[in-house]
Each structure stands twice: as structure tokens, then as C-alpha cells.
Amino acid sequence: MKNMQRLYLAALLGVAAVPALAVTQSVTASTTDQYWFRNAGFFEIGRISLQYGTDRIVDIDTSVRLVDQGWGNESPVENAVYVGLFNGDAELYRIHVAGASHEMSTQTYDLAMNANDQLQLNAALGQLNWADHPYVNVRFYTHAAGYPGWELHTFDDSMVVSSVPEPGTFGMLLAGLGLLGACAGRRRRM
Questions:
Q1: Residue 169: left if φ>0, alpha if ψ -120 to 50, beta else—which one?
Q2: Is the dihedral of CA 176, 180, 181, 186 positive or negative?
Q3: Where are the alpha helices (DSSP H) in the chain?
Q4: Can you name the residues that pair with 59 across neighbouring β-strands?
Q5: pLDDT value for 2
Q6: 181 within 8 A of 13, measured Cβ to Cβ
Q7: Cα separations (Å) of 20 from 25, 57, 136, 162?
Q8: What would the mean pLDDT of 116-123 be, rounded to a whole number?
Q9: pLDDT at position 143, please?
Q10: Closest Cα to residue 81, out of 147, 160, 139?
């Protein structure tokens, strides 16, 4: 009996000693097509809702194959792919992750390798009052310039977001594990 109690205590202490665990979510899309005359502007590829009270975003990894196939000029800044932190429809922070040219290219972005973006993104996240703003998400989207002859096409789009939920989430996990351990110990005594 004492050994079982020690085992439960060790398990609880082991979980409590683990640093904040990241939650990882992903979004993928096969293609997007935007044309200057039909659907210029912002086009959402996908979004990931953050868990209520998320403390920080640890990493965002994106990969996209893209090309500007239009006959107009090219501008990798305006014909581009972005990741944005949104509170409802209000954009809090934007990161340029890929820019299109007339040559097909595969471009990747890793937030962990861009310290300034990571700092600014998490500063914006830290300013939120979750009680007033519970609908926070990370969006993956394209922006096609609205100039004659410009197009933006993307293929094999993917975004992976790793975030750390509020500590209270882990407190509830520990309480639940403790309750399960107590119930199991009591059941064995009977």
C-alpha cells in the first residue's frame, strides 16, 4: 500500500516538474489562386484558435510553394503570404513569411529562428485581457496585389503553431491525476 502511495506521489511530482508543455496544431491547404481582377487582397488559407489564456507562442513553422504568374510587375512584398495574430477580426501582429516572384519557389519560415518576430508576437499576445478577448487565433493568409496583370498562386501550404496554455490548465491536470490516485488508493484499501 505504501509503495502505491509513493508511486502516485512520484507521478504527481514528475508531472509538476515538467516545464510548460506546448500544444501543437496545424493547418494545411493544397492550393490558393488569386487574380488582380477577381479576388485581390487578403485570402485566408486557414486559422488556429488559441486555447483560452495561452501564455506564449513558442514556434510557428510555415512552408509554401508559390509563384506570381501574372504578366505585370512582381513584388514579393505585396504578393505575399503572411501569418497574423488576431483578436476576433482585429489583427494584432503580422509576419511576412513568403514573397512571390515570377519563378516558382518553396519558402519556409521558422518563428524560433526570428527572435524579434517572436518577441513582438508574444508581446502582442501578452497585452490581451483574455476575459475581454476570448477569441484569439493565428491566421495563415495570402495577399495578392490589386494591380493589373498580377496573380498569386500557392501550393502545398502548411502552418504548424506551438503554444503554451495558461498554467491553470496544468493545475487542473494535476488535480485530476491526484484525485484519480486517491480514488485508486481508496479502492484498494476496501
A1: alpha
A2: positive
A3: 2-17, 115-126, 167-189
A4: 162
A5: 57
A6: no
A7: 16, 12, 20, 12
A8: 96
A9: 92
A10: 139
Q: Which of 56, 66, 63 is nearest to 164 (CA)?
A: 56
Beta strands in 4-135 (DSSP E): 23-35, 41-49, 56-67, 80-87, 90-99, 105-110
Grid coordinates belonging to 136: 484569439
Q: Which of 124, 117, 126, 123 is nearest to 55 (CA)?
A: 126
Distance between CA 35 and CA 37 in Å, rounded? 5
C-alpha to C-alpha distance for 65 and 165, rounded to whole angstroms: 31
Instruction: List, for residues 149-179, the tens digit of each pLDDT value.
Output: 788 999 999 999 998 876 655 566 666 777 7
Per-residue pLDDT at 5 exceeds 60: no
pTM of the complete model: 0.77
In angstroms, the Cα distances linking 133 to 17, 34, 54, 123, 156 are 31, 32, 12, 15, 32
Is the CB of residue 23 less than 8 Å from the CB of residue 51? yes
Query: CA-to-CA distance for 174 and 181, rounded, in angstroms?
Result: 10
50-100 tens-digit pLDDT = 988 898 999 999 999 999 988 878 889 889 999 999 999 999 999 999 999
> Which residues, 6 or more positions from 187, have their beta carbon under 8 angstroms from its beta carbon?
none
The chain-wide mean pLDDT, for the chain, equals 84
- For residue 62, how far is the Cα from the chain centroid? 10
Q: What is the pLDDT of residue 124?
A: 95
